[in-house]
Amino acid sequence: MDLQSSIAVLKGLGPKSAEKFQKLNIYTIEDLLLYYPFRYEDFKDKSVFELADGEKAVISGTVVTPANVQYYGHKRNRLSFKMKQGEAVISVSFFNQPYLQEKVTVGSRLAVFGKWDALKSAVTGMKILVQASDDLQPVYRLGQGVTQNALVKAVKAAFAVGAHQWLPENLPQVLLDKYRLLGRSQATAAMHFPKDLSQYRQALRRIKFEELFYFQMQLQLLKAANKTEKSGLAVNYNQEAVRQKISQLPFSLTASQKNSLNDILTDMRSGRHMNRLLQGDVGSGKTIIASLAMYATYTAGFQSALMVPTEILAEQHYESLSALFPDLSIAILTSGMKAPVRRTVLSAIASGSVNMIVGTHALIQEGVDYHRLGLVITDEQHRFGVRQRRLFREKGSNPDVLMMTATPIPRTLAITTFGEMDVSTITELPAGRRPILTRWIKHEELENVFSWMKSELKKGAQAYVISPLIEESESLDLKNATDLYEELSAYFAAEAKVALLHGRLKNEEKEAIMQDFKSKRLQILVATTVVEVGVNVPDATIMLIMDADRFGLSQLHQLRGRVGRGSKQSYAVLVANPKTESGKERMKAMTQTTDGFLLAEADLKLRGSGEIFGTRQSGLPEFQVADVIEDFNILEEARRVAALIVSDSHWQQDERWQVIVPNLNQNDSFD
Question: What is the pLDDT of residue 476?
Fold first, then answer.
């Protein structure tokens, strides 16, 4: 047994159980060890007199009344009983967990984990514990068929055989000493089962540095390779043909669109390898600039390829390119294609009979050979790892590289995250686009919003309704997508057809639902953030986001950008009762501006060290535990150290990287 052994060899698991874990990309013991919790529950027993209203805690007491189960509605029920803690009598309720009744007997001692309501002297239970504990209990992200208990058991089984001690140290001793970092095996153990908050923070600090350091090492190597390359391709495009194509557009380019296009075309013609980031707010018109760059590449006799993160988005780009350039041969390549179709497309790409190719990560897989690749573009580039981006640019003979993002990035963050990449920014919205009106309301006002939506739907509007959850979890106070779908289906039965879209659907199902929404066969789309990057639907003018305070500003802005794609007035309604000042500030910021760059700067100010027991908001790029906004200090130090290592010609020969010692100031720190 070793790190690469299947988890099926662990005690308590087998081939069938191991197969379920594959949905979480956990195949080996090493995968399991490196699958970290995203938060923890504090299961220490507390007195109700110490609790704040709304606080989640473990409350122990003696059961004083029998458990009663009351059924109401479709598949809904409430289990209730009372227990006594000292002199306090507490009402306990569990929703949709009738099977817990057998655990509740009068006179027995119980430890209930739940949410405290000080006004009612009641707790809404989430789980019944065998006993209270002084430990922090890990909470993992789950997949279909894998429960929290199963994951915790599997991780404990790996620790029982000492598997965490098999992990090789992947940071040089000089960095461990300098930054006072835990060793890898010790940090991994503390990430899963910390003794206390202090040990967890030490482990998190180490793992974050490790993630950001290796990310920066890859970036610095990529930059070093760019500098040593003698030249790029000289894409001598037909200027007159490009001018004519621009003049045929049904709209005029904005000044910043023209400037960005000029930056790109100048790079392409120069013969110097282009490595440019095109950033612009949601709906600012980056796609047309990328399309014109692809057209310029075609006029020079080269192929161009555009890589996007989802099949839905690939289909959208394929359709828009086909409409824009009806005389050109354009292909789409995705992982979900049937083998005969895929073979035909691959043959066309290799022979050069295709001018432009759009696809997902399938574009960089083995077996994809380009005829004469001149330009590669990645859209929403932060969703692709550095390795994926490198593989893409290695296709062909050093093609020019353009990366696009609709996530506005503050300049200080862009410099550290994307280094010496040239940056072009589109700062204006296209003519005819109206700013999206954004309102923040409390849950109690939702009925008024539904009434207003009815009148808008009668005028031909379509609406997105976003929920942060897919199904019931311990967060019972959140409206989940399934319940929301049922509620809206009943409420709008006469006015609208409603559909549910979430990440667990198969790609074909997602695409079918989005196509129905786009063609107006559906009027309301209840969805998780799977629509954050999705198809353009001009008649979708309402974006209703439930529990909006659970999202970061960047994500809220991306979601808001799904509407306002046409000339009609669009609206974003944020439904939230935030309990923290940060949550309230985020809601206010969203209603005060639609400028993504201002919001990005606000995000940097609002996002502090993070809430260990709260939901972690992902940053750009995406890591398992690190966040480039929240952990900017660590990211900047990791960049500095990685740059020192890569710039030293001897670093590859010194496996412990001791060469960097003379260059490190002992006062440097990221704390």
Answer: 38
User: What would the DSSP string read from start to end of 13-26?
Assistant: --HHHHHHHGGGT-
**Of the candidates 402, 426, 450, which is a domain's last residue?**
426
- 184-188, 307-311, 411-415: which is most confident: 184-188
Pure H helices in 180-278: 184-192, 197-228, 239-247, 255-270
**Average pLDDT of the chain to the nearest whole number:** 83
Domain range for 176: 168-228+633-671
Q: Both 491 and 519 in a single domain?
A: yes
Question: Residue 614 falls within a domain, yes or no?
Answer: no
Could you give the percent of the chain with pLDDT greater than 70?
84
Strands 356-359 and 373-379: unpaired
Q: What is the pLDDT of residues 261-279, one digit of tens each?
A: 999 999 999 888 888 889 8
Which of 656, 666, 658, 639 minimizes the C-alpha distance to 222? 639
Question: Are 579 and 530 in the same domain?
Answer: yes
Residues 361 and 295 in one domain: yes
Judge if pTM exceeds 0.70. no
DSSP state of 6: B
What span, in angstroms and rounded, lies between the C-alpha atoms of 95 and 114? Answer: 11
Nearest to 546, CA basis, from 450, 669, 427, 425: 450
Bridge partners of 89, per DSSP, are: 84
Q: Give the number of other CB atoms < 10 A from CB of residue 344.
A: 12
Most confident of 64-73, 168-177, 298-307, 643-652: 298-307
Listed residue (79, 72, 74) closest to 102, CA to CA: 79
Q: Are residues 83 and 215 in the same domain?
A: no
The residues, any chain, with a CB within 8 Å of residue 637's CB and separated by 6 or more, are: 209, 668, 669, 670
Is residue 321 in some structural domain? yes
Beta-carbon contacts of residue 375 (< 8 Å; ≥ 6 apart): 235, 268, 293, 294, 297, 302, 304, 305, 399, 400, 401, 402
- Residues 165-174 have pLDDT tens digits of 999 998 988 8
Per the model's pLDDT, the better-predicted residue between 240 and 382 turns out to be 240
Backbone angles phi, psi at 304, to 5 degrees: -135, 155
DSSP state of 525: E
Number of domains in the chain: 4
**Residue 150 falls inside a structural domain:** no
User: CA–CA separation, 76 vs 66, rounded Å?
Assistant: 20
Same domain membership, residue 514 and residue 561? yes
Determine the residue type at 639: R
- Using DSSP's 3-state secondary structure scheme, residue 275 falls into strand
State the Cα–Cα distance between residues 305 and 298, nearest whole angstrom: 11
Task: Give the span between the Cα atoms of 297 and 374, in whole angstroms.
Answer: 6
> Helices 507-518 and 311-324: crossing angle, nearest 10°?
50
Is 136 domain-assigned?
no
Tell me the CATH number at 379.
3.40.50.300
Output the CA torsion sign for 554, 558, 563, 565: positive
3 state DSSP class of 413 = helix
Q: How confident is the model at residue 411 (pLDDT cuts 50, 70, 90)?
A: low
Beta-bridge mates of residue 404: 278, 379
pLDDT given for residue 474 in this prediction: 38
For residues 243 and 328, membership in a common domain is answered with yes
Beta carbons of 352 and 380 less than 8 angstroms apart: no
Per-residue pLDDT, 653: 52
The token pair that represents 69 in the structure block: 């189960």
Please tell me whether residues 197 and 256 are part of one structural domain: no
